[in-house]
Amino acid sequence: MTDTSHYAKIPLVRVISRKKIRDAGKEHPEWEASLLAWYRVAKSADWTHFLDVKQSWKNSDKVGTCVVFDISHNKCRLVAWINYRSKKVFIRYVLSHPDYDKEKWKDDCDCD
């Protein structure tokens, strides 16, 4: 039996782009820990459909073609498009609750 404990864990999901998380954390330091917690959950997830997402991040909703994650006790919303086949999460927006409520992000999620 080969010991693989010294190898770095390969992320199951690729998050594109982490830069949006870093930028939001710089602009809103109070969100940083929660955004990093979401990132750790997402990159180690094995999401094959939305129900898997909901099991690993209960404060998430499917809106059109996107998934909206409530972050930092609903102070921030992360809007992403997930390609379940390729295991990629494309972060579209990291928004404050007031910016989210303006609903401009919905154009990117094929919402009516």
Topology:
Blueprint lengths: L13 E3 L1 H10 L4 H12 L6 H7 L3 E4 L2 E6 L4 E8 L4 E9 H5 L11
Parallel strand pairs: 1-5
Antiparallel strand pairs: 2-3, 3-4, 4-5
Helix pairs in contact: 1-2
Total number of distinct structural domains? 1
| Largest beta sheet: strand ordering | 1-5-4-3-2
Structural class: alpha+beta
Number of strands: 5
Examine the coordinates and then state which fold CATH places here, giving the name of the CATH topology: YaeB-like fold
Strand content: 25-35%
Proper CATH architecture: 2-Layer Sandwich
Provide the gyration radius in Å: 15 Å
How many helices? The count is 4
Main beta-sheet strand count, sense and barrel state: 5 strands, mixed
Give the fraction of residues assigned to helices.
25-40%
User: How far from one another are the termini?
Assistant: 54 Å
Spell out the helices and strands N to C.
Answer: EHHHEEEEH
Tell the overall outline: globular
User: In terms of per-residue confidence, which ranges show pLDDT below 50 for 5 or more consecutive residues?
Assistant: none
Account of the 3D structure:
Helix content is 30%, strand content 27%. The chain has 112 residues and is of the alpha+beta class. Helix 1 packs antiparallel against helix 2. It is globular and about 30 Å long. The chain starts with 13 loop residues before the first strand and ends in an 11-residue tail after the last helix.
